[in-house]
Amino acid sequence: MEKELLFQKISDSVVEMEDELVEELCEKSLEMGIDASETINKGLIHGMDRVSVLYEEQEYFLPEVLTASFALNAGIDILKPHIKGESTDKHIKVVIGVVEGDTHDIGKNLVKIMSESASFEVYDLGRDVPLADFVAKAEEVNADFICMSTLMTTTMAGMRAVIDDLKAKNIRDKYKILIGGGPISQKFADEIGADAYAVDAASAVRKMKEMAHA
Amino acid sequence: MTPKNRLIAVLNKEKADRAPCICPGGMMNMITEPLMEKADVFLPDAHTDSEKMAQLALSAYENGCFENAGVPFCMTVEAENMGASADLGNRHIEPRVTKYVMDSVDEIDKLTAFDVTKGRAKVVLDAIKIIKNKAPDLPVIGNITGPVSTASSLIEPMVFYRQLRKKKDEAHAFMSFVTDGLVNFALAQVEAGADIIAISDPSGTGEILGPKYFEEFAVQYINRIVDAVKAKNAHVIVHICGHMNAVYAQMNDIRADALSFDSVVPMKEARANLPDRVLMGNVSTYTLEFGSPEKVALLTRECMKNGSDILAPACGLGMRSPLVNTQAILKGIINE
Question: Which of A112, A160, A196, B132 has the greatest number of CB atoms lying within 10 Å of its CB?
Fold first, then answer.
């Protein structure tokens, strides 16, 4: 099989959420001696990018994105041990979590999945995250972005507290802050001084890419 | 008209003297810190004590906020009853599930069948009886956590959503088991005296599931509860969170007496898409917590003008919402 055709098939299998087929094709790529990182980029990630587009177009929803990302990860698990040398790409580093008092983490998990698919380095603090942890983790890993999410109006104020804390420590400009979640709006992002608001996971990843390369 | 007659009339599409103002309880939390202070009953105590639960639920009416009483004040009773662990939170933070029961949808045998005689399910039933006794003219709303939300409180939601595709048959068996439990609890609440059952399913939205899975896993199972409750001559309100534009057709298949929406849904749009339905909502809970009473009253009148039949907060109230704001929906209706 031609290399390009194999990449296309891997990409299609991610879009079709066929994890077993993805595994089979990734094994095949290794047998054919194809560079593992090339297969990841041109096959697996290419497929996941198409999934993001389908998600934005409301053709795919959460169950489809999750199943596709499961297929993607099945492929990455096979290929990762075969990547030659360290990647020279500077990874975008993201600290992400759902603010304290809220356990709704579906949106956050989607952003995480799509960020990882875009090769970001993601530090997931989980849900119901004590506010101080966002800044502490960002400082520890020297992050580029702090992403906060909440689905509840009652916990929105926590986002402002994190930004105020950064200001008080005089490190506000070290990080870009991206926020999202059901009750969040661009207006709220402006009010509390966040750098960006994202309406969904695909746009969150796109905005981070734009800001990182600005 | 009494508050109960008024609400029932509107749910039956009959004439009422004016629009009712309610807050169902459950996920649509009706309790705030100022109300706890007024009643001198505080959370988390009222989650586990039926007298306190009844007293706190009635305080919303007694203090001029809403024309109903609704229990419980959380969405963890059902999952806890079936085996999950819950942290009951404090006066600012609502209860949440802390430990799931299953690792995969095919592990139904790890669940406990719903038992209405035990734990906080019994507290809720006793509270309904107390409220009914104390305030016979007030509509009593019993709350049920929707099937998808209950299911995804028993298993890690990311696994659950993925297995809807990967283990479809097992997922349906699991949903069926969960829904049987919810039907039992709903009917026990009606038996105890609830006039209305409100079902909220924040994890089973069209926005999350997409139209196909929303129909297959949310609407179908919600309707099983709706039909069972209506067969006992009680009424049903269903609240679905998130944007609706992808799923209005499926939403119209829900056989509830009234449909309620999040504040992200423009009431005008909901009215245009669901012309024949009784609609409830959808005053922003953000404005209720952080805005002014004038703004709340203004939003209330906007909702009425745009087609809302029952005025209500669009989601659960924030615990810190000021009393004057919480009173402003009803004032907005009366001063209209």
Answer: A112
